[in-house]
Specification:
The protein has 227 residues and is an alpha/beta fold. It has helices at 16-21, 26-33, 68-74, 98-107, 121-127, 181-203, 208-211, 215-221; strands at 45-46, 53-62, 81-87, 111-118, 131-136, 148-149, 153-155, 158-160, 165-169, 172-176. Helix content is 32%, strand content 22%. Helix 5 links the parallel strand 4 (111-118) and strand 5. The longest helix has 23 residues, at 181-203.
Length: 227
Amino acid sequence: MYELGVVYRNIQRTEAGVADGLARFGSATVHEAMGRVGLMQPYMRPIYAGAQVSGTAVTVLLHPGDNWMMHVVAEQIRPGDIVVAAISAACTDGYFGDLLATSFQSRGARALVIDAGVRDVKTLTEMGFPVWSKCISAKGTIKATLGSVNIPVVCAGALVTPGDVVVADDDGVVCVPRAMAAATLAAAAKREANEGAKREKLGAGVLGLDMYDMRPALEKAGLKYID
């Protein structure tokens, strides 16, 4: 059960160097490095291509058709944060547009991740403010119901605790728990180095069949070559 009508102001954020460092690896590598957990549902898509960010999570719980708490969460944003917005029941209304983006950006927010709709995407793109959302919708919202800020939320199937690291790019959005962030950064770096070596071999013409020693298993499974 969600805690309603509260704003936690003093959250413990992941160390900035770790949170920032995860951005360059992207969601797929970070997801794999963390043990294939933490990934949000694949319907969460960026409003424009090419953005790749990481940052510390500031969370907000909203209610269907009501964006009142988006204005409340703005006060809690610190430079390097990513706002993660969960909805208490499924909704596709446009909770966020260029005016809120201007407010968020002025506070140092790097992005918004919201399990609902957004609008003003042309202007948001021109502003260079990245958003990952369930959908795009011109339908507006009201301001009438209290939610909460900086409580643990489930956003698009992923548990997000304030201060966790959020990594987002064209492939999706993944949440890295604060306690796992440093180890995940190290694992992601190791994984990328390994993939770099494989990329060089594949580029030189080595087949994945041989690089991964697949031939014995394929033969055992019954694969036959016919000339």
